[in-house]
Design a protein that fits this description.
By secondary structure, the protein is of the alpha/beta class. Helices cover 31% and strands 20% of the residues.
Length: 354
């Protein structure tokens, strides 16, 4: 048989299938990665598999879990996040994936599990680099590519709020819903969108970045708003995150309390703390009304520490309805994330379709 000419190509990890005629194709993976995880071996092709691994890369911890085909947890591990060290962060994620495969028995047959990673930022598809990450050592780094090469398989990365949306749309509070808007109300405030159970990213990589829009229907005493780390003023995140709640309470009362302390004080009958929570609820209602007027999602899911406030689910529907275009009652359910703190890491695992 006549040998065909050989064509040497570099191909991005997310582009493994392509048509070429008249050539035998050899994929050459060659790149420079900041020490210490340089690799030149080829990536393993992913076969159809029901085994999946999710990683949640947080500012202080990295959590990972392995799921079976039904979404049942096989193994879970948590390690500290290396601070201000990109190479060490990559090494830690790689080591965590390998430990999860061993503990869950996923490496015994030689078929690699799929790997998805939720990150506190987003991947710019045009460049493959991270942007908008509050873990600043990730910014402008090719994280998805480096992990793919180090693990010798394609890896998918997505914003952590998008992972929350995927998790809850797959087998959580919004299971089966066509359009899900998910909110993380924690130290910061983020949003994510899932359409038919899949992440909606957008060409700019900022789909769902709800927290960095201005607080809508701002009152005179809310303008121009607190400065935000993104460089703007009055962002939604600066008002309705846990940090924003504490800052607002301090501005109004002169007393410094954390978010949990404000909640506890309100429950104990402190009028000033109760007023701070009322202002928080009103602002969340206004911010979500803007989402409903724009996207009209089938379900809104709340995650993060503030999502544990039961009173939000009693008060938010009416507060959102005040600002709905055309008026009327809110038809969109506002639900607590079914999987709680585990929802983000589960969503990372579900970044690969079944």
């Amino acid at each position: 048989m006549q040998s065909l000419p050989r064509l040497h190509l570099y191909i991005a990890p997310s582009r493994l299938q392509f048509p070429l005629c008249g050539f035998s194709v050899e994929l050459i993976v060659d790149m420079e990665i900041k020490e210490p995880h340089e690799r030149t071996e080829q990536m393993s092709p992913l076969q159809p598999t029901a085994r999946r691994i999710g990683i949640d890369l947080g500012g202080t911890k990295i959590e990972g879990l392995a799921l079976d085909s039904a979404g049942a947890e096989l193994a879970r591990l948590r390690i500290p996040t290396p601070q201000h060290d990109y190479a060490a962060t990559v090494r830690s994620i790689v080591g965590l994936v390998q430990q999860l495969e061993q503990r869950a028995g996923l490496s015994s047959d030689g078929k690699p599990a799929t790997v998805g990673v939720g990150i506190p930022g987003t991947i710019v598809r045009a460049t493959g680099l991270v942007k908008n990450a509050n873990s600043i050592w990730l910014i402008d780094q090719p994280l998805e590519r480096d992990l793919s090469l180090a693990l010798t398989r394609p890896v998918r990365c997505a914003n952590d709020a998008n992972c929350l949306a995927v998790s809850e749309a797959t087998d959580g509070a919004a299971a089966g819903a066509e359009l899900v808007f998910a909110v993380i109300l924690g130290t910061g405030c983020g949003g994510g969108i899932a359409v038919n159970g899949q992440v909606r990213v957008g060409p700019n990589g900022v789909s769902g970045e709800w927290g960095h829009n201005p607080l809508p229907w701002a009152t005179a005493d809310e303008l121009p708003g607190p400065p935000c780390y993104c460089g703007q003023r009055g962002c939604i995140e600066s008002w309705i995150s846990g940090t924003g709640l504490a800052s607002d309470h301090r501005r109004v009362t002169g007393h410094t309390l954390t978010g949990p302390q404000i909640v506890a004080a309100a429950a104990a009958g402190d009028a000033a703390a109760e007023a701070s929570l009322v202002r928080l609820e009103d602002r969340v209602g206004r911010a979500l009304a803007g989402v409903v007027n724009l996207l009209d999602p089938d379900v809104i899911v709340l995650g993060g520490g503030l999502s544990k406030l039961d009173r939000l689910y009693a008060h938010l529907p009416a507060l959102i309805a005040r600002h709905l275009f055309g008026g009327g009652a809110l038809a969109t359910p506002v639900l607590r994330a079914k999987h709680g703190d585990a929802s983000g890491v589960r969503g990372a695992a579900w970044l690969w379709p079944a």
